[in-house]
Fold this sequence. Notes:
seven-stranded mixed sheet
Amino acid sequence: xxxxxxxxxxxxxLQNHYKFISLLEExxxxxxQLTKQLKHVMxxxxxxxxxxxxxxxxxxxxxxxxxxxxxxxxxxxxxxxxTLKRVINATGTILHTNLGRARLSKSAVQHVVETxxxxxxxxxxxxxxxxxxxxxxxxxxxKKITGAEATMIVNNNAAAVYLVLRALAKDREVIVSRxxxxxxxxxxxxxxxxxxxxxRLVEVGTTNKTHLYDYENALSPDTAMILKVHTSNFKVIGFxxxxxxxxxxxxxxxxxxxxxxxxxxxxALFDFRNYGIGNEPLVKEVIEMGADVVTFSGDKLLxxxxxxxxxxxxxxxxxxxxxxxxxxxxxxxxxLAALEGTLIDYVRGQKxxxxxxxxxxxxxxxxxxxxxxxxxxxxLLQSSMDYEANISQSSSQVGGGTMPDVELPSVxxxxxxxxxxxxxLARILRTQTNPAIVGRIHKNEFxxxxxxxxxxxxxxxxxxxxxx
Length: 468
């Protein structure tokens, strides 16, 4: 043992080794930082030798030095590798919360890159040469698309709900149907957020039935607003009754100091109903009915970045913009750039809208998916004898707590590997390919749904499967 420890080369000698120099260049590290990492590895090796846990080559050999640098390289690689990585979503779930929800369009991504790499007029009026507002960059676009008098952007829809309640209903009553006291991902509850905001919840009706007279009977001098929450992540069916938006707006309008606020959740700017997909109300429709304020997400059906969008009457939006919390929940330049890049596609019309990946993937037809799936299977089986592949009819989900009752007719590719179980195949594709590939397992088969896969990604999946 003493001889082995004596033969361990000193750090200054390893610093002159060509592998040390290569690591400096590859990872662009300071010499002192890499030396610190090397000392840590050498201490670890000594402890393993003393404890009898060292299973590498013996000190005094070239192989020992190789082992040391292998450990050092692995440590550095882990330390300097990104943990947020690209994933190919082959599940068919379009707004997959675990995989980042909406995929941005190319124009939105380009706008983000340009804005991030350079200075910008984030809060500067170029024509006037004076300070401006970051809200102005997307406000005009949202007003054009929704017909709202004014808008503002916050970091997500939960923040939008909180700001509206805090600024407009603190220490006053907010009337909500019991059937709309929803909980969404991360245990975010409407009742809890209302409590945090300082507004007082007044529940009316029952879980399955709420009538107009329930709201009328709950109105009092302390009522600040009537709130309708879009139950985007669940559906109550059967013996049910809810009050239409228009009737609630008319009720609020009869009382001068009562605001009608609707949380639209997913926030559709595109009418999917024309394609037989769901029954999501358009933001524009609710605004036109006369809602005082609405809120909705940017990274769901809209197909943009994570953001909360508040739209409505100017007098109310101006009040929200001036509130102290507005700075707490505001968004950065990259979010605004991504949102602006997305919204411009809406303004361009039908051709521009289909550039948005979320809408494109929602509208893709079964026939197109079937043709792509057949080409995929043909390429795979021509290149590998390790798989059995079948194509069958199935369904995809919208995801992200959006349109829970909607099943999109789809086509799936079911794969069986000659040696690996479906679970093993799924694990290899998640952990040993770059980018990682995530599919789904059903009835002891690994499945791929090309609805959420681009043609470029199809080739990447085929190459990964062949390499396995």
